[in-house]
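It would be a great kindness if you could assist me with a short task in structural biology. The matter concerns a single protein, recorded as an amino acid sequence and a row of backbone structure tokens. Could you please explain, in whatever detail you think fit, how the structure tokens follow from the sequence? Thank you for your consideration; the sequence and its tokens are set out here:
___
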Amino acid sequence: MPDQLDLSHLKGCGLQPGEEELPAASPEESGPEEVAIDEGVVVQLVSMGFDMEGCRKAVYHTHNQGVEPAMNWVLEHMGDPGMCLVDLLIVISRLLVS
């Protein structure tokens, strides 16, 4: 077994003939889409006995389509780990945008 591993043959050499450079990603393409959570739907779901953060996640993931789709989402995901916790990706994306 050699003491050093030579990977120089794997190193890139830049743009090759016949290749095209990819366009730069626009801000809309690079981040998650912003969904304004309808608090009215959240309140209705909470009044049915569901957890507040779970309801917020349901409204977020159903893109504010209303109480019924959000309730269905909650019922389908009740057993998911972290259902009662704020989705970490949502929090991180909001911090990065701020």
About this structure: The longest helix spans residues 67-77. The radius of gyration is 22 Å. The helical segments are 27-30, 39-47, 52-61, 67-77, 88-97.
